[in-house]
Amino acid sequence: MTKSEYENACKTHFGEEYFRKLSNARVAVAGLGGLGSHISVMLARSCIGTLHLIDFDTVDISNLNRQEYYLSHLGKPKTECLKEKLLEINPYLNIIADNIKVTEDNIEELFGNEKIVCEAFDNADRKAMLVNGLLTNFPDITLVSGSGMAGYADSNMIKTRKIFRNFYMCGDEKSGKENGLPLMAARVSICAGHQANKVIQLILEEGM
Asked: For the chain, N or C: smaller number of CB within 10 Å?
């Protein structure tokens, strides 16, 4: 498939204007587990031009019940496996992959060039660290975060809520594995869909 063939197919689906906005957009995804791996796939299928993938972990067998990985990926870096998969979806996608753990010390280095960041960590402390670090150091970054998608409760409990000007929260904001609930593919992917959809909305409606 040539680049022009791919782009023409995208334009057929999205139209010239939407394709231009999507293909010029750049999005960072921090954490490539149940949320982040699904978000990345959805954005790749939506013709986003550049994805910045950030995770330090390798694929474990415990990931296979809800994340976008396969048996052949076990033991390999998530950044590497997801990059390979995304390029099968869109071979012309520009991918920046950082196989690194996000800390308070490297937030500025990792996210200094971003306009939109999807927070997709599965640890509450790391979520808080990233959210606080981004909103403190980069007041112009738009952050789309996820909280509360465990178990199998009503799908419609998962919402997208604007916390303030540039901070959106997706999920039911209460159901987590710390409550003894399992993380299951269906509900996790619903929350990931909310995050990906909010990103697309921001790009198409606000020109981000």
From this structure: N
Angle between helices 34-45 and 78-89 (to 10 degrees): 20
- Confidence bin at 181 (pLDDT 50/70/90): confident
Per-residue pLDDT tens over the stretch 49-100: 999 999 999 999 999 999 999 999 999 999 999 999 999 999 999 999 999 9
Structure tokens at 201: 């909305």
| pTM across the whole model | 0.96
Question: Which helix (DSSP H) or strand (DSSP E) does residue 28 occupy?
Answer: strand 26-30
What number of CA atoms fall less than 13 Å from residue 111's CA on the CB side?
Answer: 31
Q: Which of 113, 98, 116 is nearest to 198 (CA)?
A: 116
Any idea what the Cα angle at residue 170 is, between residues 150 and 134, rounded to 5°? 115
- Is-contact 145 127, C-beta < 8 A? yes
| SS3 at position 91 | coil
Beta strands in 55-198 (DSSP E): 94-98, 116-119, 142-146, 159-164, 167-171
For residues 111 and 98, the answer to whether their CB atoms sit within 8 Å is no
Q: Which amino acid makes up residue 87?
A: L
Hey, is 2 helix, strand or coil?
Answer: coil
